[in-house]
Amino acid sequence: MTLVDTSRHVPTDAPLIAPLVERWSPRAYDPTAELSEESLRTLLEAARWAPSANNVQPWRFIVARRGSEAFTAVHDALMGFNQAWADSAAALVVNVAETVDEAGTPRPWAKYDLGQAVAYMSLQAQHDGLHTHQMGGFDAARLAEAFGLRAGLDVVSVTAIGKVGDASALPEPLREREVAPRSRKPLDEIVIAAA
What's this protein's family per the entry (predicted)? Predict the structure, then answer.
C-alpha cells in the first residue's frame, strides 16, 4: 500500500491551531477505509456542541456509510463531477437546517448555525486524522424526497468524510485540482473595517 502524504500545510499570517492549519478538502479518499461507530459518534458530538441562536440547535444530519442504501441515495443525488470522486468516501453526511419549526415559526439563523455545526464536525474530523469535503452540487429536492424530509427542513450541503487516498486515482482535471497549491485571499481583502 502506498503511503499518502495528507499534509497540505501553508504559511499563515498568524499562528493557528493545528486542525485549522492542516485542514483541506480532498477529493481522493481511500476506498477501503471505514468510519467506525465511535468515530462517527465523536464527529456528531462535536457538531452537537456548536453554538446556535437561542440554543435551538436547528441542525439535522443524514449519515450514510459507504455500502449502504442511504449512501447510494445520497451519491445518486450528487451532481456533476462530485459523483466521480465521492463514492470513495467512507461516509456522506447530508447537512440539513430546520429553517421553519414544526409550529411554523421561521428560524432565520438556522443555516448560519448549521454552518457552525458542520465546521465543528470538520475540525474534529481533522483532529482525528480524517478529512472532509463540503459539497454544494446536489439535487436537494431528490434528497428531501429520498429521506422524507418535511417542509422547513432544508438540505444545505453534503459532507464527504474519510481517509485521504491516492490523488493519481482521480480523473483529470480533478487530479490536477487535488495537488494544486492551496491559497486564500489576503486579510486586507476580506476585512472591511478594523478599528
Answer: Belongs to the nitroreductase family.
